[in-house]
Amino acid sequence: MDEYVKTGSKALKDVFWIFVIAFALLFMHRRPEEANTIYYTLAFPVLIFIVYYLHVRLFPLGEIQFVILTAFLTEMGLIMIYRVAPELLVKQIIWIAIGFGLYFIASYLFKHYGWLYNLKYGEYIYIFLAVGLIISTLFFGKEIGGAKNWLTFDGIYVQPAEAAKVIYIIFLARYLKDKRDLKNILILGAITIGIAGIFALEKDLGMAFLFYTTTVLMVFLVTSNLFYVASGFGLMAIGGILAYFLFWHVRVRIEAWLNPWMDVPGKTYQIVQSLFAIAAGGFFGTGLGMGHPEYIPVVASDFIFSAICEEFGILGGIAIILVYFVIMYRGIKVALEARDEFGALLAAGLISMFSLQVFTIIGGVIKFIPLTGVTLPFVSYGGSSMVMSFFTLGMLNGISVGEEEEDVQFEAQY
Amino acid sequence: MSNLKRNIKILFGIFALLFFSLIAYLTYFQLYERDKLITSSYSVYNRRLIEQEKKILRGSILDRNGIVLAKSVIEADGTQKRIYLDGPAFAQVIGYSRRIYQQGSTGIEKAYDRELLGMVGSDPMVLLRKLILGKGQIGDNVYLTIDKALQDLAYREMEGKKGAVVALNPKTGEILAMVSTPSYDPNLLDRDWEKIMTSPEHVVLNRATQGLYPPGSTFKIITTAAVLTYMPELFKEVYDCKGYVVVDGNKISDFGGIAHGKENFERAFYVSCNSFFIEIGLKLGSDNLEKMAYAFGLNQRVPLEIDTAKNYFPSIDGKVALAETSIGQGKILVTPLTMALAASAVANDGVIMKPYLMKYVVDPLSGAVIERNTPNKYLTPITKEVADAIKSLMIGVVNNPEGTGRLAQIPGITVAGKTGTAENPFGAPHAWFVAFAPAENPEIAVAVVVENGGEGGKVAAPIARDIIKAYLSR
Fold first, then answer.
1. Which residues form the Penicillin-binding protein transpeptidase domain (chain B) (predicted)?
2. What does pTM read for this prediction?
3. Which of residues 258-277 of A touch B (CB under 8 A)?
4. CB contact, 8 Å: A233 with chain B?
5. What's the rounded Cα separation, in Å, for the pair A323 and A330?
6. Cβ-based contacts of A345 with chain B (< 8 Å)
7. Domain count of chain A?
8. What is the Cα–Cα distance from B352 to B341, expressed in whole angstroms?
9. Where are the domains of chain B?
10. CATH class as words, domain B216-353+379-473
11. In the predicted model, what is the mean pLDDT of residues B272-283?
């Protein structure tokens, strides 16, 4: 245990020094316009240390790695955001603070997650909440960056789909815990296709892909039935082809992926600029402050990975991918060690959705797969994504802590 | 539950695979796609290059002996100005790089853009060293294979005419001179951009590599190569020339309607008798002629650092087309560079070397050579025996009292050549001459085209002679 904490604090020291050095350089490179910026920036390492200390205290058996790894990811995000859009830095730090708060709340809330399963009419409540959130933007939504997936409250922009992700996973876990026969799987299939369809109408292809694929993977987890998986992906392919011919925005995405050179000043501008940035970075990067990530459109949110690749090289990019890999690994471990099937499904669903999202956006900006606009969790600028990503890891931590504490009690009896 | 656990482990495997495929793709991208992306013509949309271009003093372009042809200087207002010291003579080969004005780039300036901007040392250690030594602000120098003295001579000879000259070393593929006229002064691009770009004489076009002309009788080199390779018995043919032949009711005349009388293959080649070669061509057949033309690359785009046009050689359809093709008329269109390479195949024992314009790229501060071109084979259309036989025919063209290329004679040097007088729909025939010398040990191969110049032997041959003479007496 002591060894464990020692390794953790050593990693955290590295995170701290990266932060100090990077921001010292950045502030010399571009002097902050307000003193506030400096105070908030200094608040970030303090926040991380408080969170770390609290985590060790409150959840000695918890997933402390989540804190260290997210500290690294959020700090990489902050560094790049200050590079490309300094005015967003303070907001992002506030979102991170709120995120950590939610992480703790989620950890307590889901330590005893049994109530989620026992809730009367639970699965109806979850699915109506999830679908309601997703549909809400169709009626009250605002179109930003080509997708109609935002709600505005008094100048604050919210992406309800981010919250819907978590609720939908709870629904899936609850549903699949008991309903695994063909009829119920077909009903679930219909629900999922409906949700993907709504997202397609909102032009949010990334979310459509995430919800659908996560469902297919979850069905596989409980049924081990490869036929379901095959038909799931087969239907996705058919849907993709239909969408290609029906929706102009789908066609543009796929064509831009197949041939990014067809219309560089227009339709494929984003992806080509992203590739230019990654190419400019090479293996070792141009160095912090030496590149031009600001040439990439929407760089602070969707394309932040390309910006990191430009200035830190793909070695920096690979480091980020490996951090996500470790988070994914810890999530899978939580699922494996969960004390019941519902907990295992919940954890597996959460980490699947999370990992798929990471794959979708990184794969998209490097042109490995067609580009769909989702955020890079913890790194991209954006409040909804940030707080819900923290909430997701908080839930995983809660599931893990609940399990471990039970073990400890069990051992204590003997 | 145990099934579920197994499946969760499979899930882990899937995600591990997905994440590592991202890493693999990124690595692949940097290793194989990156250079293509940076050098592609789409890089006009890459603002990084434009920014870099403004900050870096662009490297110089020099001839093979180190004489500066193009250099950049910093003006009083801090901006850069590109100076072309031998403007019109080199205008199309060197080209221009005007990305910062959103006007694109051409020629050597385009082909070696990254070198001239000092961006080739992408090795981080090289970059680090440059940074520490304060060398980041200057581009690398590009040395051409071209000899400025020869280029200037060729340009003087061509001034006032329309056409192109290509001279190259047949043993290595190094291009020694490449001139296209009429030309323009690239130093005036800032002021006269519109005028130069829209000039009715197409001054920006590099006629040596992008001009497409019917090869006329210079194509008889290829017809002869096909005869010697596929049907050597035809070489013994004897024929009585009446000054014209009738093929399927079409009368095709010799140049000026001259009847050459009784002739064997050698004499027909020296006097460039069309009737004879049409008869030979009809016996040779379309397939053999096409096969040999393809072997000489007449249906290809010649590989070169700067843009080249694709030669045009449609499949031969019918007797009339075959007759016309055997004497280099009909629908065939080739670039002067292609015909210079055809001559170099004869000069170099049947092997065409891949042509190139850049000798080496040097870091001006350390003097280190960063890139270097080495000779490579491009095509081997004929054997040494066939090459030697054609060579003696080409010597006859220049040295036989009846030869059409007598004006190319140089005292003390055996020149081998072939004239061409290419009929075309735009007026007087194009004058062609391809040659190499010294025939015993060729050092230079030349192709000259003068648009609507008239007879190749009278107009083009003297130009080639002067170039060969100047080069060999250097």
1. 163-469
2. 0.68
3. 261, 264-265, 269, 272-273, 275-276
4. no
5. 11
6. 4
7. 1
8. 6
9. 216-353+379-473
10. alpha beta
11. 93
